[in-house]
Specification:
Structural class: alpha/beta
Number of strands: 17
CATH class of the largest domain: Alpha Beta
Largest sheet: 5 strands, parallel
Number of helices: 25
CATH architecture of the largest domain: 3-Layer(aba) Sandwich
Helix content: 40-55%
Radius of gyration: 29 Å
Strand content: 5-15%
Distance between the termini: 48 Å
Number of domains: 4
């Protein structure tokens, strides 16, 4: 990227961030652009037939594929020349640059993305495939001139107009490769983005067999030993090399998060984030960025989440989980609902900022068997970005941990909240423990009210002592995590309930609770809870904890009336 002259923040005009943009040509022309063009050099140098890159969602796969399309595609006379976008970048200034730049704008390119293919039924999914394939045929409609009159031209028009029968559509990728080669007298570059999304969705929604049968014919038909294909590149989240739809690609090279080659091209490296921070004058924010968005490891190369880093700068350097809700991992959600006890315990350990050695594979096997082998959950979590490997796979096992603060939030929402098997005596107790671990006071209030609705008589719910005992009883099962005390002197009075984490559970916060009961329905529960919370500070109830060097302390007051509760923190 061309650097602007040094100037004060008021004098210089900063390039906008490419937030929400994946079309590389637009990003390179108008936005701050992290230079990943050496991916082109490395792909050409490998001389691979077809490659598959698997990376988590939002790690730049689509932008990289758009860059490849922009670089390789032969453009018509009425289309803008894009060569200048590459002449100022690394691909034009590296060793043997003339050799690589000679490939720019030379080939017809087929570009398909399946990232939005999330239909609930096979009929809708098949229709979506027909639309996207038809649109790509229309984009290359000029090549129909080189087809002989008759059936081939009719077939081409049928695909464009979405009238093709299933057999023709299954073989359409090979058909288009051959048509483009015949017209341009050049080999074809085939780019397929998020190849696994249709099959993942199909597996979840009950039309797996139909989708795999289609892909088994569609993909290898064009890219298996096709003399007219210069290069085939596919991206996805999951590697399912034993899957029927990929087994026919005997020339396929797969690069997963465990493989070193190409590791620096998906995500931002440390120096790239530092340069971005300097450009926008926010070097002071680098420690926070590292804490929240660094920590992913691809082939031994530590990476930042590019989606979140861009949104962080764009939002004025406000740290929060921007990755949350940007993708769907339905297979993971289904698996965690039936986890065996030991796996649930391992996930809880990871949530507490610990590492664990778990079963691991870089090859998942057929989708229909994933649900029958829950151990593949760990491989899914690594592929999807929830966990990072801390070394190589040895004897089908690998040490893993949660990468950073952002993923900890996502992990909590997408994984721990979906666990259905209790890690202790009941599901409810497990959920209650998670409210303390995650500091989710609203969830704690909801838990208490649900307990009151299900278990307590309206007439029982009256005295402060009743509610004190209720809360104490609900948390008593956590005695292996906390030392729980009640009505003890501390500071200038006697607290109601105190939870001090045991030595082996210092990742849990200490907790001080003050309980109050309203006398009438008209009493303001929120105000009463706030009064209870103030009392904790005014009476210095946390003095015993502070004296022992504990600083991570949650304090909240709880006010009750009948089967309602309010909490102030």
């Amino acid at each position: 990227m061309e650097k602007e002259p040094t100037a004060t923040g008021a004098q210089r005009r900063l390039l906008p961030l490419p937030v929400g943009k994946s079309i590389w040509e637009e990003v390179a022309e108008h936005c701050y652009c992290v230079d990943k063009t050496l991916l082109i050099r490395d792909l050409l140098a490998t001389r691979a037939g077809t490659v598959l890159f698997t990376r988590p969602c939002r790690f730049g796969k689509t932008t990289a594929m758009q860059m490849l399309k922009c670089f390789f595609e032969k453009r018509g006379a009425d289309e803008p020349d894009v060569r200048h976008l590459f002449e100022s970048r690394a691909i034009a200034h590296c060793e043997d640059a003339d050799e690589w730049m000679a490939e720019q704008g030379k080939y017809p390119v087929i570009y398909l993305t399946f990232k939005d293919h999330k239909s609930l039924r096979w009929k809708e999914a098949y229709g979506a495939l027909a639309i996207d394939i038809g649109n790509e045929f229309k984009r290359h409609v000029a090549c129909m001139e080189s087809l002989p009159p008759g059936q081939e031209r009719e077939d081409y028009v049928d695909i464009c107009e979405r009238r093709a029968d299933p057999t023709l559509l299954e073989n359409s990728l090979k058909f288009l490769v051959d048509a483009l080669h015949r017209h341009h007298k050049e080999d074809v570059v085939v780019l397929i983005d998020e190849y696994d999304t249709p099959v993942t969705t199909a597996s979840t929604n009950g039309y797996y067999e139909e989708m795999v049968a289609f892909m088994r014919a569609f993909l290898p038909g064009a890219m298996k030993d096709n003399a007219h294909v210069k290069m085939g590149v596919m991206t996805g989240v999951l590697r399912v090399a034993k899957e029927g739809m990929l087994s026919g690609l005997n020339n396929l090279k797969v690069f997963t998060v465990f493989d070193e080659p190409f590791s620096e091209y998906f995500g931002f490296m440390e120096n790239e984030v530092e340069e971005m921070a300097r450009y926008y004058g926010r070097e002071d924010k680098l420690p926070e960025i590292r804490s929240w968005y660094d920590g992913y490891v691809f082939g031994g190369c530590e990476m930042y989440n590019p989606w979140s880093v861009l949104y962080y700068f764009d939002a004025g350097c406000v740290a929060k989980p921007y990755w949350l809700d940007t993708s769907s991992n339905d297979i993971i959600a289904e698996l965690v609902e039936t986890l065996p006890f030991d796996m649930a315990k391992t996930l809880e350990l990871l949530m507490k900022d610990k590492s664990a050695i778990v079963p691991m594979t870089s090859e998942l096997g057929p989708y229909q068997y994933i649900r029958d082998t829950p151990q593949t959950l760990y491989a899914l979590l690594v592929s999807a970005g929830y966990l990072k490997p801390k070394g190589d796979i040895v004897n089908e096992r690998c040490a893993v941990e949660i990468p950073n603060r952002e993923v900890r939030h996502v992990f909590l929402k997408d994984i721990l909240y979906k666990l259905r098997r209790a890690s202790r005596s009941s599901e409810a107790e497990n959920e209650l423990e998670n409210t303390f671990l995650t500091r989710d006071i609203d969830a704690f209030r909801t838990y208490i009210e649900e307990f009151l609705l299900e278990s307590a008589s309206y007439f029982d719910a009256s005295a402060e002592g009743f509610y004190h005992g209720l809360v104490l009883g609900m948390i008593s099962f956590m005695r292996d995590v906390y030392v729980i005390t009640s009505n003890r002197e501390s500071g200038y009075g006697r607290f109601d309930i105190m939870l001090k984490p045991r030595a082996e559970h210092l990742d849990f916060p200490a907790v001080v609770i003050e309980v109050k009961a309203a006398k009438t329905e008209a009493d303001d529960l929120d105000a009463l809870a706030a009064e209870a919370r103030r009392q904790i500070d005014e009476k210095n109830y946390a003095a015993l904890l502070v004296a022992e060097g504990i600083t991570d302390i949650m304090k909240f007051g709880i006010a009750f009336f009948a089967k309602r509760a309010a909490i102030a923190k």
